C-alpha cells in the first residue's frame, strides 16, 4: 500500500507541469491549438520599414549638361541674296545652295567645325545677267547660349563663279529642339549665314546673306 501511494505521488509530480501547460494553452486558444510558430518575417513586422526613395526621371525642361569632346556634323539647305560693292557695285543675285558642316563639339556650349557651301543661281550687273555659282569653305567657331540660340564666325576661302579670294563668315541661329539617341543629339536648326568674299581689287567685296534650314548631330 505504501509503495502504491508513493508511485501515485511521483506520477502526479511528473505529469502536473504538462497538465498545467495544457491548461495554459487552452486559456490562450479556446480551440486548444498551439500558437503558430513565429517566423523571421513576423518578428520583423513591427520594426520600422526602411524608407525607399523612388527614382524619378528628369523633367523634359530640365537642362542636361553634356560634357567632353564629341564629333559633330550637319547639313543645310539655303536660299540667299548676294550684292556687290566697290567695282562690282550693282551686282545682285539669287542663289540656292547646300551646306555641310563637320568638326567637333568641345563642350556643351563651344563647337569648332569646317563649314562648306555651294550654291547656284542667277545674277545680273547692269544689262548683263546669267547663271552664277559660289563655293566657300571656312573654319567656324560656334557658341550656343542656354536658350539654344547660337552665334558663330570664322574665316576661309571662296570662289565667285570665276574670281576667288579669302572670305569671312558670321552666322547666328536657333536650335528649336533636339532628339537624343545613342548618346547623340540631333538638332534641327534655323540660321542666317553671312559671307563676305574679298575677290580682289577688280571685283571688290561681294556679300552673300542666306537663310538656311539644317540638321546637326552632336
Give an overview in words.
The protein is mainly beta. The protein has 2 helices and 9 strands. It has helices spanning 2-28, 40-43; strands at residues 70-84, 92-105, 110-125, 128-144, 149-160, 164-174, 178-181, 184-198, 205-217. Strands 1-2-3-4-5-6-8-9 form an 8-stranded antiparallel barrel. The longest helix has 27 residues, at 2-28.
Keywords:
single chain, 218 residues, mainly beta, 54% strand, eight-stranded antiparallel barrel, disordered N terminus, 9 strands
Give a quick rundown of the structure.
The protein is mainly beta and 218 residues long.
Percent in helix: 10-25%
How many runs of DSSP E, i.e. beta strands? 9
What does the main sheet amount to? 8 strands, antiparallel, barrel
- For the largest sheet, list the strands in their spatial order: 1-2-3-4-5-6-8-9
Overall radius of gyration: 43 Å
End-to-end distance, in Å? 109 Å
Report the total helices: 2
The unreliable regions are 1-32, 57-65
What's the helix and strand layout?
Elements: H1 2-28, H2 40-43, E1 70-84, E2 92-105, E3 110-125, E4 128-144, E5 149-160, E6 164-174, E7 178-181, E8 184-198, E9 205-217
